[in-house]
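tokens incoming
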């Protein structure tokens, strides 16, 4: 084999959820929000002049960072923004998970974490969830090179109480603890208030789920000014102009409308609670989700077969070919009408299962 072929960086890539495109589909497979972004986002995009695309965007993302700092009551020096949490988390892994000690995260969690570790050659150790799929805080007390987990966790939907996150922070004064709050607006409790007491905490949130802006690719990290400064140093060593002009403006407009965020997340939460009742009546079991999806299993039907039957009917959900969860489906909460169509399909399917 040629030397340049041998030198290729071998990676097993993260596999994102399918993005099918059928006019009649019910898309419940990648945790998008069924409601549109805030009205001000639409208006901002309408006013965005194509002529401005000639110029580079602001590398400091000042307009967006200042809006986020104001909304979350922190200083702009505590805010880092990137092209979705996938970009923000990759920068965090590259910047902070840089020792010989293993990074800790759960076995059942966001599947991108081990991919970044492999890509950046970061050692890691996987901590199995308890039988009920909850995170075991005691597993995170041994010496480590960093800790990362989503809260609520994905794909389980289970929220960890803030007291347990505080336990992990208190016992890890030498480690950075990253809390990935992609779903926190759907009923979890944010760790942001703990920033005052714990300098080893970094909180990551995204505009992709609760703010209905997955297509805009915007997310942020909040932490101490020293940590955010270190993140910026790495970002400027890699790609200075990350967020495009339209997303910078649209993101700032979204953050300014807190009432709309509350209104639409409340609608998703109400539909989620109704979905829990309906699915429980049909015999499905699931952890108590505080996110915009349910992670369900049924003793009388095979998850993969059901996944495929749903796909035939153009109802898309997510099935993971992974240990412990092969008989589970992750179902995103859509509109009430979409969920009603799902319930009708499932009732009929279970009759013949
Ligand atoms: C969706 C998701 C992300 C990534 O979202 P972006 O669209 O890249 O912001 C990060 N973490 C978890 C746990 C997610 O579910």
């Amino acid at each position: 084999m040629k030397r340049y072929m041998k030198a290729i960086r071998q990676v097993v890539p993260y596999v994102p959820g399918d993005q099918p495109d059928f006019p009649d589909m019910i898309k419940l497979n990648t945790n998008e929000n069924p409601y549109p972004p805030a009205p001000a986002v639409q208006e901002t995009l309408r006013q965005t002049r194509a002529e401005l695309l000639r110029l580079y965007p602001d590398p400091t993302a000042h307009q967006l960072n200042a809006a986020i700092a104001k909304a979350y009551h922190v200083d702009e020096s505590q805010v880092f923004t990137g092209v979705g949490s996938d970009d923000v988390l990759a920068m965090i892994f590259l910047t902070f998970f840089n020792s010989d000690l293993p990074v800790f995260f759960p076995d059942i969690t966001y599947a991108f974490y081990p991919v970044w570790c492999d890509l950046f050659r970061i050692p890691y150790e996987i901590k199995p969830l308890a039988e009920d799929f909850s995170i075991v805080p005691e597993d995170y007390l041994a010496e480590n090179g960093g800790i990362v987990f989503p809260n609520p966790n994905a794909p389980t939907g289970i929220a960890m109480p803030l007291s347990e996150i505080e336990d992990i922070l208190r016992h890890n004064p030498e480690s950075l603890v990253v809390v990935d709050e992609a779903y926190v607006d759907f009923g979890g409790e944010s760790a942001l208030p703990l920033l005052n007491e714990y300098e080893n905490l970094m909180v990551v949130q995204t505009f992709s789920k609760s703010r209905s802006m997955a297509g805009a690719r915007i997310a942020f990290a909040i932490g101490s000014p020293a940590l955010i400064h270190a993140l910026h140093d790495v970002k400027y060593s890699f790609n200075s102009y990350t967020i495009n002009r339209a997303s910078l403006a649209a993101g700032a407009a979204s953050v300014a409308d807190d009432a709309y965020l509350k209104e639409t997340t409340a609608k998703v939460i109400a539909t989620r609670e109704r979905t829990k009742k309906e699915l429980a009546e049909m015999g499905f079991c699931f952890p108590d989700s505080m996110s915009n999806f349910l992670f369900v299993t049924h003793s009388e039907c095979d998850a993969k077969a059901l996944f495929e039957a749903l796909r035939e009917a153009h109802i898309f959900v997510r099935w993971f070919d992974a240990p412990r969860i092969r008989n589970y489906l992750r179902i995103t909460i859509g509109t009430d009408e979409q969920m009603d169509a799902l319930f009708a399909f499932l009732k009929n399917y279970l009759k013949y299962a």
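note: The chain has eleven helices and 13 strands.
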